[in-house]
Amino acid sequence: MISQFAGAQGPHRHFDLVVAGGTVITASHRERLTIGIRDGQVTALLDPKVDWQANHVIDARGLFVLPGAVDAHVHFREPGLVRKEGFVSGTRAAAAGGVTTVMVMPTDQPWTFTPQDFKEKRTLLSGQAHVDVALQAALAGDLSNIDSVEELVAAGAISFELFLGDVPPAYVIGDNGKLLEAFARVTAAGSVVGVSPADDGVIGLRMQRISREGGRDLAAFFRSRPPESEVMGVARACVMAEATGARVHLRQMSTRPAIALLRDFRRRANGLSAEVTPHNLLFSDTSVAALGPYAKVAPPLREEDHRIAAWEGLADGTLDIVATDHAPHLESEKEAGRDDIWKAPGGFPGVQTLVPLMLNSAAAGDLSYQDVVRLVSENPARLFGLFPRKGTIAVGADADLIIVDPQRESIIRNEDQHSRARVTPFAGRRVRGAVTTTLLRGSVIMQDGVVADTASGQFVAPDRGQSQHC
């Protein structure tokens, strides 16, 4: 890896910026290097002893340098729900936490169904985003917008999201014939199918029982989404993937039987991938009882055995990435569920805490630092066609970097959150490993917790030829 260089040689090694002498960590490599950056891209990876010149220098000696994280699952609530979050606050939170690319889900008001919806949303993010943004589109439950798939692909949609349950009925694809048609159409267009697996029949039956019992606390909500709901959704998605050869990404895996089912299907269907959230890795249902409505999220936090199964899925490759499902709501909205959990919306912020939590897992020995890069940077970029522009540190890649002090300890605090939601369920958690600097295409966008005022983020579209299984 030493002395990779693109462009001028010898005494002409002059860069806009040099990140000097840090330990560069990618998914496949760990080495002390100096990074030369020109025109927003990495143009050299040099032995620290090699001479160079630069307009600006960041001294990274004693620190780690990782590629910026790529969060493949966020809700930034714009358009229509900016009281909860918008591109400004959501991307500021991302920059503060070391996430340099986000993929924004289509569940706003209106949902991103049509090419016009997509173009308007892309226009909205211009000049507001502090990190780079990819946009996901959705297919309606009745597939009324299926003839827009090709135009949405041309506009740069990074995936097509299909919901199998636990959303309003108009958005649920309940008919297997329609589901098969959706998978085939998206596959023919060369895109990725994102699936949120659930089963409304299973949830409805459980809800009837809970209603009779009068359950109104957090535990009642957790019981309302049993593992069987997720298993049924995963089964449908996997069968369709095997039948069509689709590239299918399963969202928010959270249960042992669903992960086991996916593991079996992955032996036969090469196009399957899946994510898990930090909260399903780090919380069990009983560990968050005191948080009440602030811990309400779908799929719910599970019993300890399911949490262990998620870690096992990461270890054996059944689960490919960690993504946040950043889903902010105002504190007043959450507090409405203090005495009746059904009055609180589900979801909470996560994009700012993703990298610190994963770095802490590495410091604790649950992961290696190379695993962290693989799970939150390289694999998301690979799966959705952004690699090698994003997700790695290599000559020709965008200079999206985070500089990490692996020894620095801090406590996650609500008052430090940039999301409008403010309250994070991880508040009070001590983490080891701090993102001290975030760079986007060679420009510092966060330094020591302070996010730059300039919103330099851009819309990014996938390279369909680069989308690949991990």
What does this structure look like?
This protein has 470 residues and is of the alpha/beta class. It is built from 13 helices and 19 strands. It has helices spanning 87-97, 115-125, 149-155, 176-188, 200-213, 218-224, 227-244, 256-266, 278-282, 304-316, 331-335, 354-363, 369-383; strands spanning 4-5, 14-25, 30-38, 41-46, 53-59, 64-67, 69-74, 99-104, 132-135, 137-138, 160-163, 192-196, 247-250, 272-276, 321-322, 401-411, 430-440, 443-447, 450-451. Strands 1, 2, 3, 4, 5, 6, 16, 17, 18 and 19 form a 10-stranded mixed beta sheet that branches. A 6-stranded parallel beta sheet has the order 10-11-12-13-14-15. Strands 7-8-9 form a 3-stranded parallel beta sheet. It is globular and about 70 Å long. It starts with a strand and ends in a 19-residue tail after the last strand.
**How many DSSP helices?**
13
| Structural classification | alpha/beta
N-to-C span: 22 Å
Question: What amount of the residues lies in strands?
Answer: 15-25%
Q: Overall mean pLDDT score?
A: 96
Biggest pleated-sheet summary: 10 strands, mixed
Low-confidence residue ranges = 5-11
Q: What best-fitting shape do the alpha-carbon axes yield?
A: globular
Which value, in Å, is the CA radius of gyration?
Answer: 22 Å
Q: Give the helix level as a range of percent.
A: 25-40%
Beta-strand segment tally = 19
